[in-house]
Every structure is written in C-alpha cells, then in structure tokens.
Amino acid sequence: MAILSVEDLSLSFGGLKVLSEVGFAVEDGDIFAIIGPNGAGKTSILNCIGGFYRPQKGKVIFEGSDITRRSPDRRAALGLARTFQNIALYRGMTVLDNIKLGAHAHLHTGLLKGLLYWGPAAREEMALRQEVEEDIIDFLEIEAIRKLPVASLAYGLQKRVELARALAMRPKVLLMDEPVAGMNAEETEDMARFILDIKEERGITIVIIEHDMNVIMDISDRVSVINFGQKIAEGTPDEVQAHPEVIKAYLGEKRD
Description:
Layout: E1 2-13, E2 16-27, E3 31-35, H1 42-50, E4 57-62, E5 65-66, H2 72-78, E6 80-83, H3 95-101, H4 111-116, H5 120-139, H6 155-168, E7 173-177, H7 185-202, E8 205-209, H8 213-219, E9 222-227, E10 230-235, H9 237-241, H10 244-251
Parallel strand pairs: 3-8, 3-9, 6-7, 7-8
Antiparallel strand pairs: 1-2, 1-4, 4-5, 9-10
Helix pairs in contact: 3-6
C-alpha cells in the first residue's frame, strides 16, 4: 500500500492555475522524484503535501488517512519532514542546536518542568542530545563542525545540516526540494550517497524535487513529470526518459 498519495490536487492563486488534478502514489521505502521545467508546479506540490498550501480541490493521504486539512506541525508530528530549496536554518546558532530543533516535536516534558529544566526535562534533553550526536551527526559525517555556527559553514555543509535537522524529526516520509542545487560535483555526489543511505539503512521514504537529471535517474525508483501544473508522465527512470511528452517538455518540439 502507498504510504503517501495525492488525489486530483488542484491549486490556484487568484486567476493563476498552478496545479490541475495532479495525482500520484508513493510506495513505502521508495525514492519518488518529481521533475519538470521551472515554474511547472513542483514545489507547490510539496507545499500542499507539507501543509503550507491548502489546495482548492483534491486530497493528501498519508498512511491511509486524509491529512489535507491538518496543519504543518501536525503533519510533522505524524512523520512528514521537509528540506527546502532555500536553506532555512538559524544562522547564528550552532550546528548541534539547529539539528536538535528538529526533534523538539517529539519531546513530552510539560511546560513547567521544561522551564525549570530539572528531572524529566533534563533527562529528556540529554537523551535527545545523545541521539543527535551519536546517530545523525555521525551518519552525515559532520562531527567536526557540530559546535560551529551555521553562518560560518560552506553552502554544501549547510545543506547537510538542514538534512540532519529533518532526520532529527524521525520522519517516515522525507520531502526534499532541490537538495543538490548550487553544489559542486563532490558535494552532489556526497548528497546523493546520503539520500540512498537514508532509504536503504533507515527505511525512510523520500519524495524529491531536483533539476539535476543525472542524480534523479541514478537514485529514483519512480519519476513523475509535471509541466504547466499537470502530470504528463510517470514511470521508472528509463520509461520516463523515453517518453515523448517528457522529451518535448524538456527539449522542445522538433520543427521541419
């Protein structure tokens, strides 16, 4: 059964139609890619899944439940995490503190004990720190920078920290918006490896938007192609690359 699906998703801003009856299903444990030209509506789909946009029509189904009207924080608590095209970190805070913020949705200490920071609150915070330091930081190979402020890091490392914060949310589905945009070849290769490891070692389902077609075709299980707010093709990477509508959308229609 699909862990995540969208059904007949339609979205408009005023008279501008952004999405028109878009639908797909993501199988548990897959890397599902959404591709298309600039302005096709890809990020709008992620925003609808994450709860930042409310579609005029259609549903978002997560683990068999309709979450279309759930708030973003409730979706995060259910197991949806997100990275962004434009890095959304607290630049004055350390790497470790930024990552720990991702796990705060899972803390259970009440307000009073949290303010006093004693007993259960202190133990829970220490357990969280241990989980982040021994698991996520080690997994993403950022031990050497954990105490540095985010603002001092190179762009590629900041993207890795943002991924670490999303993993700290303990997601079942990870939404990734252009994770290798702006990276050099070495950084791109590292990020692609981490994405595959997240799937294979952690069993996390991934929905990814990316313009680097080499990355998408190498790591994805299935690919959905969006153009002008409509789905024009879906299938395996090989099937999609050979689809005439996809070739037309990316390369333009041949003229005699």
